[in-house]
Amino acid sequence: MNDAMLSAEGIHQYYGGSHILRDVSVSASPGRITVLLGRNGVGKTSLLKSLMGLVPIRSGTVRLAGEDISRATPYQRARAGIGYVPQGREIFARLTVEENLRMGLASKPGGTPVPTHLYELFPVLQQMLRRRGGDLSGGQQQQLAIARALASSPRLLILDEPTEGIQPSIIKDIGRVIRRLADEGLDGHPVAILLCEQYYDFAAELADEFLVLERGSVIARGDRAAMQQPEIRGLVAI
Ligand SMILES: Nc1ncnc2c1ncn2[C@@H]1O[C@H](COP(=O)(O)OP(=O)(O)OP(=O)(O)O)[C@@H](O)[C@H]1O
Ligand SMILES: [Mg+2]
């Protein structure tokens, strides 16, 4: 556990009186992909938002590289090295691709350029720099959302259902980029990846470790080999 980039323990979270997350612990290590599985409405997004500071937790601890960030704002967490790709992408439809990428640099000093290695990961974005975000296909928007999160060179990348509503060829491209980030790092430093998914085959191909949420509790976790067991597929397959 000492080498974890992210280490969250005993997370409880509520929306009003509804107890959404119940004693959830999750960690993510440099160079590894941790997959968060679970059916609709079990609390996956709530957990990722809690880690990013977008919703408050009632109790528990979130640590990044050993530092307690449980009470930090989303902006402070971005500065500390978390890149967040929200469910549904949330790119700015009226801004150009280049302007969207610059938004990803908000936690960096003014004048920091968009890192050119992003175009190596996503060549399609370079061809479309002047196009409006809203005019891209769903898959291209997802690639843009990932590139925007990578612009600040995060040490932890959190992705919320990046395959949702996306055509298979782009899903493959996105999977390759995620694997490459884990294997090669970014900007000369390693990256830990936490990926939330409902698409089992995509998740199983990428997972170094996994955990399964059901009604806000972790009901299974394990390594890559354990994920291939039919019981795990049965827990998440729709
Ligand atoms: N802002 C909110 N206010 C009140 N309840 C909410 C809010 N956001 C989510 N919920 C509820 O919390 C529970 C968990 O939702 P969450 O979005 O975390 O699930 P999820 O696993 O990400 O689902 P999906 O697979 O559909 O994205 C659900 O019952 C949902 O209705
Ligand atoms: Mg969700």
From TrEMBL:
Keywords: Amino-acid transport, ATP-binding, Cell membrane, Membrane, Nucleotide-binding, Transport. It comes from the Bacteria. PROSITE patterns: ABC_TRANSPORTER_2. CDD domains: ABC_TM1139_LivF_branched. SMART domains: AAA. It holds the Pfam family ABC_tran. Transmembrane segments: none annotated. GO terms for biological process: L-amino acid transport. InterPro entries: AAA+_ATPase, ABC_transporter-like_ATP-bd, ABC_transptr_urea_ATP-bd_UrtE, BCAA_Transport_ATP-bd_LivF, P-loop_NTPase. One of its GO terms (molecular function) is ATP hydrolysis activity. Belongs to the ABC transporter superfamily. This is Urea ABC transporter, ATP-binding protein UrtE. It comes from Roseateles depolymerans. The lineage of its organism: Bacteria, Pseudomonadati, Pseudomonadota, Betaproteobacteria, Burkholderiales.
